[in-house]
């Protein structure tokens, strides 16, 4: 049995979609227990809409909420009774195996490090979302808040990402690449040039060299290693270009009668692509290298994404990912 | 009359499409003269297909070609009779106002600096492509080869980009933003945090603060300032996500009968979007801050893009962009 603490107050659709997602996760999997963290009366009201196994859904009251715009460090330190702080403490105290939040990314990242704490040997815990590609998904690591990383950090990202893709996503010998502005070995900025030979030396990962950003959507690598600033830009651009293109296609089609009929007929095909390239389909992004598991799901998550993010915690815990990370980094 | 030296040997479709593009540019505009640089016999053979104003199309023989994979510095130094070196010398010797190439980006960037030379006061000449957006185009500056820039370089990029967008593209008081991982002033990596207050102090640009990568496709800023590594990743991802999505949509539509009929009807609308979001529509990317004008067009350019890149040189020269840059940076 896996226990997942869920931030019932975080995200654009809290608490409605979060509570629904948690109830759905418990209904789908008999090996999951959920602790909904947040304002008790709000959660109770939402829960009253559903029938569910009461043994496996509990409420943990937290009176405060950290809003998206708040400065992360100050909010984690100041709001001791917020759903994020109380939820993370559940992980720290081993009352929960994992914590899932759709709330403030900054607060989850800072709180994860300050409260859950890092695995021995981990220098920086990276945020590692799965990106949809033509071939499936790729892990982009790091997209977090710890910018200006050093080469030793990137080497750890490569190892942690490789373990995650192999044992949680199920890809044998994941192809690890470093995000670069050319494929030749001498290309890159100072950080990439310093990191490249270090990755080449790692015998425990399947390093395939540099990847250009153009190749990411085609699925040219399973683990894409980068510094957080670049990773964050890439992640957000991925979302932005996709959603703008879809909007434009819709608009263009609906601007003519012929296009409208075409759109009607093509709708199922378009939806299929839209779904495939929707990052939210793939559960939340794990913050790797922490004691326990902390998962940041998209702020706009609906019940389905919350359910996916919760279920994802099972494989992570069962596969003892943290033990594997500990072994790998302290070898 | 503007004279543009054109690298007839550079790019995937050279010399066929390059020569065609040059002939078309001369046909379209009576104020353009073109010097086709490259292997004389190859160029003559292509030119023989067309009728054109012989007064305004000349050939300058260059026996060597720099291939895309070659190391830039070595190739510029070693291949003195290459089309890139000979073409750039035309600019240096004021035989041409501009040089357009679809060849090796690295060689054009290095050669531009070494041969054409920098405008007094310019620290680094940035490569500044126009990105298609919902509202029109935005300038992403720098996407070049000079990675690991300092804040003083980024401030110059902002000024040069602003001048370009105002006087070549025709946008009054262009909105200048810095590419960042959040919109709050305290967000960013060390470089962005250092650059932000410097941009805020510039009275000659319309600085609107930070822009997240997600907002680029919607056209939230006219000039997007960034360091070259990040810019290059953003540019290539822009291309990659767009082309993968279009491919996926096509594939999904053609996989069912219903979708096929829909695709047939929707084709004009889809083409319209594809065209709008095709970066190659917008001519080449100028390398700003050099004596004369050096334009790098996409390696896959066809005649139309070559024509656009050549025509773009007229406004640049007529608007005396380089004088404006010189004044701005030495004020």
Write up what this structure looks like:
Two copies of one chain form a homodimer. By secondary structure, chain A is α/β, with parallel strands linked by helices. Helix content of chain A is 46%, strand content 16%. Chain A is built from eleven helices and eleven strands. Chain A has a six-stranded mixed β-sheet, sandwiched between helices. In chain A, strands 5-6-9-7-8 form a five-stranded mixed β-sheet, with helices on both faces. In chain A, β10 (285-287) and β11 (293-296) form a beta hairpin. In chain A, α1 crosses α10 and α4 (83-92) packs parallel to α5 (105-116). Chain A is globular, with a radius of gyration of 20 Å. The mean pLDDT of chain A is 93. Chains A and B meet through α8 and α9 of A and α8 and α9 of B.
Short description:
The structure is a homodimer of 331-residue chains. Chain A has eleven helices and eleven strands. Chain A has helices at 16-28, 40-47, 72-78, 83-92, 105-116, 151-169, 190-201, 228-254, 257-276, 303-318, 321-329; strands spanning 2-7, 32-38, 57-61, 98-101, 130-132, 137-141, 175-180, 206-212, 223-225, 285-287, 293-296.
Distance between the termini of chain A: 30 Å
Quick one: overall form of chain A? globular
Biggest sheet: strand arrangement of chain A: 3-2-1-4-11-10
Spell out the helices and strands of chain A N to C.
EHEHEHHEHEEHEHEEHHEEHH
Backbone structural class of chain A? alpha/beta
**SS elements, strand count of chain A:** 11
Radius of gyration of chain A over all CA atoms, rounded: 20 Å
Portion of residues in beta strands of chain A equals 15-25%
- Main sheet summary of chain A: 6 strands, mixed
Identify the biggest protein-protein contact and residues per side.
Answer: A-B, 65 and 65 residues
Average pLDDT score of chain A:
93
- Seen as an oligomer or otherwise, the chain set is homodimer
Low-confidence stretches of chain A: none
- How many helical elements of chain A? 11
Percent of residues in helices of chain A comes to: 40-55%
């Amino acid at each position: 049995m896996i226990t997942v603490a869920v931030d019932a107050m975080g995200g654009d659709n809290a608490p409605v979609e979060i509570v629904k997602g948690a109830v759905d996760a418990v209904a789908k999997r008999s090996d999951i227990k959920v602790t909904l963290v947040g304002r008790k009366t709000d959660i109770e009201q939402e829960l009253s809409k559903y029938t569910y196994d009461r043994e496996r859904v509990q409420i943990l009251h937290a009176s405060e909420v950290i809003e998206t715009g708040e400065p992360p460090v100050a909010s984690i330190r100041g709001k001791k009774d917020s759903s994020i702080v109380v939820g993370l403490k559940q992980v720290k105290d081993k009352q929960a195996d994992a914590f899932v939040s759709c709330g403030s990314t900054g607060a989850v990242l800072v709180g994860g490090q300050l409260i859950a704490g890092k695995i021995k040997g981990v220098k920086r815990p990276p945020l590692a979302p799965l990106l949809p590609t033509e071939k499936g998904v790729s892990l982009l690591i790091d997209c977090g808040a710890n910018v200006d990383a050093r080469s030793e950090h990137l080497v750890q990202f490569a190892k942690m990402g490789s373990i995650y893709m192999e044992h949680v996503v199920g890809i044998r010998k994941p192809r690890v690449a470093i995000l670069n502005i050319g494929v030749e070995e001498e290309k890159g900025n100072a950080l990439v040039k310093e990191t490249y030979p270090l990755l080449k030396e790692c015998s425990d990962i399947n390093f395939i060299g540099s990847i250009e950003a153009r190749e990411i959507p085609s699925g040219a690598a399973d683990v894409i290693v980068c510094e957080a600033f670049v990773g964050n830009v890439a992640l957000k651009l991925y979302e932005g270009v996709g959603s703008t293109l879809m909007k434009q296609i819709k608009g263009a089609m609906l601007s003519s009668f012929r296009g409208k009929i075409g759109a009607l007929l093509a709708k199922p095909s378009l939806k299929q692509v839209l779904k495939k390239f929707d990052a939210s389909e793939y559960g939340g992004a794990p913050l790797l290298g922490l004691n326990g598991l902390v998962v940041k799901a998209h702020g706009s998550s609906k019940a389905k994404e919350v359910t996916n993010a919760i279920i994802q915690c099972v494989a992570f815990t069962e596969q003892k990912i943290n033990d594997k990370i500990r072994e790998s980094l302290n070898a």
